[in-house]
Inverse folding.
């Protein structure tokens, strides 16, 4: 009944999404603050008639708003149903095994190998440096490659790469191969490479409204790059689903991208709490990788990552643990509101005392 390629699929496992909110959810890097207040007003007064009609298939007003925010043209912007969908379209348009392997970091967003399998693309995981940072030089060592994808900051480490290093990497990378930088978490303190898209026509930046703009539930992602790359993504989209971004989400995106005051307020709050949590964890003897994102990746050589994850869950706090060799000692903790982080830190302090 099923195809062979279906039988071979190993899907991505998203973080748990319990519907009974008995947990403090620090496991899927959602924003603890609500989206722009303008969104509440819009939803309360929305003209329901709009839902009768299909949305604008090209999301033009939304693309113009995003383009305005970054100082690029609407032709440089593509929008999709979450950045996951945008990433999948990138794989379809830019990567194929006959031109070499797709390269991405060894420890990174676990959807990258899943999309590679889905699209039938060979891939190679480039080891991280000893300090868990991405080793861009090592990406240049492969003689042939179909392209590169990496997040900046990386997930789940949270570590960022500076713009100068990215520029230097792009200057040495083949111009006929696409480099996708997944900037899902860039707004929390890393350097965006959007300013480099004019210099490198093979550079595509992918971003999302899910994290820094508190719209994970609306499913809205986008890509910024040279017009030729954007046209390619449109061709893939129009061969798959004409309307990936619905009528409501197009409006929410416009309101969210224009509300820079709310954006800055929430980013400032989250990064301040992140820095406090990092210091508090270090004071409790935990190693914390330097985070440029809205989560911290932390371990303690006296306790097992899996055990502390399970214990926190039993106590009502959900964090993320990856059972991947090399990072299995770590837990990834999303930065929530101050009181939730205090509850987390109190439990961590207790855990060390009871476990050691
Ligand atoms: N890239 C990275 C690195 C992520 O962690 C996530 C969130 N899981 C995404 C992309 C996808 O985000 P979304 O589809 O919500 O835009």
């Amino acid at each position: 009944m099923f195809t062979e390629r279906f039988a071979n699929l190993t899907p991505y496992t998203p973080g748990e999404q319990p519907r009974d909110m008995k947990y403090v959810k620090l496991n899927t890097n959602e924003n603890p603050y609500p989206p722009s207040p303008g969104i509440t007003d819009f939803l309360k007064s929305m003209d329901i008639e709009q839902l009768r009609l299909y949305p604008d298939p090209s999301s033009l007003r939304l693309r113009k708003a995003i383009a305005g925010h970054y100082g690029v043209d609407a032709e440089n912007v593509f929008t999709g149903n979450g950045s996951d969908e945008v990433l999948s379209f990138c794989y379809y348009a830019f990567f194929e095994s006959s031109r070499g392997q797709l390269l991405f970091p060894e420890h990174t967003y676990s959807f990258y190998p899943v999309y590679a399998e889905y699209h039938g693309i060979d891939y190679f995981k480039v080891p991280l440096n000893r300090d868990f940072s991405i080793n861009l030089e090592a990406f240049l060592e492969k003689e042939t490659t179909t392209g590169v994808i990496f997040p900046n900051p990386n997930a789940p480490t949270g570590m960022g790469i500076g713009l100068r290093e990215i520029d230097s990497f792009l200057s040495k990378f083949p111009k006929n191969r696409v480099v996708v930088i997944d900037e899902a978490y860039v707004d929390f303190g890393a350097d965006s490479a959007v300013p480099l898209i004019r210099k490198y026509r093979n550079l595509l930046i992918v971003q999302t409204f899910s994290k820094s703009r508190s719209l994970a539930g609306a499913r809205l992602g986008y890509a910024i790059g040279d017009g030729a790359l954007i046209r390619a993504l449109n061709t893939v989209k129009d061969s798959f689903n004409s309307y990936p971004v619905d009528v409501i989400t197009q409006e929410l995106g416009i309101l969210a991208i224009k509300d820079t005051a709310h954006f800055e307020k929430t980013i400032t709050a989250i990064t301040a709490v992140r820095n406090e949590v990092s210091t508090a964890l270090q004071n409790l003897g935990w190693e914390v990788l330097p985070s440029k994102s809205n989560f911290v990746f932390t371990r303690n050589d006296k306790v097992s990552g899996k055990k502390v994850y399970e214990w926190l869950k039993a106590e009502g706090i959900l964090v993320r643990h990856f059972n991947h060799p090399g990072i299995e000692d770590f837990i990834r903790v999303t930065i929530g509101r101050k009181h939730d982080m205090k509850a987390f830190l109190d439990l961590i302090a207790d855990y060390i005392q009871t476990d050691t």
Notes: The mean pLDDT is 96.
